[in-house]
Predict the structure.
Amino acid sequence: MGEETLEFENAKRAFAEEREKFNAEKKGLLWSVSDAEQKLVKEKQVNVDKQKDWESACERTNLELQSQREAIVRLSGEKAKISDEAEEERAAHQRREREYVERIAKLEASIAEKVAENKASEILAEEMSADCKWLLTRAVLLIAERIAKSDELVKYMFDLGQAAYNSGRKDGYGEGRASASNNEKDYHFELFKEECTGKYAAKRRDYEFVEFGIVSYPGGLTLSKF
């Protein structure tokens, strides 16, 4: 009986020790669980804060990306506009350049033409100067000689002499003298007298309009005509 009691007491004591040990371990586990739960809560809060920060960062990033996309679209539009303006300016510049080249070519052609005209004018002026000098020294005398020997002057002098002869001959008619001595008017003689006088006066006036071939030559009076 005593041995059983002793074993019971030993078993009871061992159980108490085991329970104390279990309680101690349980308490340690509870502390560990509590500490882990606190850490978990802290970690959750940290994660929540990180999530908020991440969402804020994402929102800022999205806003920045949206702003950059809008800037890219705007810059693309401006680039296209600038490219169009540059193309128009390049085309306008090429057009002005072609116009300048054409204008310069026309001016050069005009200058060449003017130079040729001036050269021809200089040659003509030299020829005219030579002709003028020749006219002053020799041509006047040659022209006077040619006019004096011309058929036009011979014919005119003949016609003028004939008109003068007729004008003077009218006073020599016996019919006229008889009419004058009888103090009678001879109408036939008066008409002939007026006709001869008029023809003579007209012939004298015609001298201003006599055309001499040497003067009215189509090419003018130059050294080459003599």
Q: What stands out?
A: Confidence is low (pLDDT under 50) at residues 169-177, 183-193, 217-226. Helices lie at 2-148, 151-169, 174-181, 187-205. Residues 126 and 177 are 67 Å apart (CA to CA).
